[in-house]
Design goal:
The chain contains 4 helices and no strands. The longest helix is centred in the middle third of the chain and has 22 residues. The termini are far apart. The chain is elongated, with a radius of gyration of 24 Å. The protein is an all-alpha fold. The protein has one domain.
């Protein structure tokens, strides 16, 4: 059904080009964002799951006891 609809439309070949451009811009943007982060920020985010937070640990213990 969709292919029949697209056959009747003019200039359908522009959609793959537009989607490729959007993907390319998103990819380049994410690469630029990644390489412009400060090293200290990356180290902080890298160690975030491993941090031993007393507040979080006590909250987790309270939830287990309840």
């Amino acid at each position: 059904m969709m292919s029949e609809f697209l056959k009747d439309q003019n200039d359908v070949s522009i959609f793959p080009i537009i989607s490729l451009i959007i993907f390319f811009l998103f990819f380049i943007g994410s690469v630029i964002w990644t390489f412009t982060r400060k090293k200290q920020y990356l180290i902080h985010m890298e160690n975030l799951p491993l941090e031993n937070n007393d507040i979080n640990n006590s909250e987790m213990k309270n939830e287990i006891v309840k």
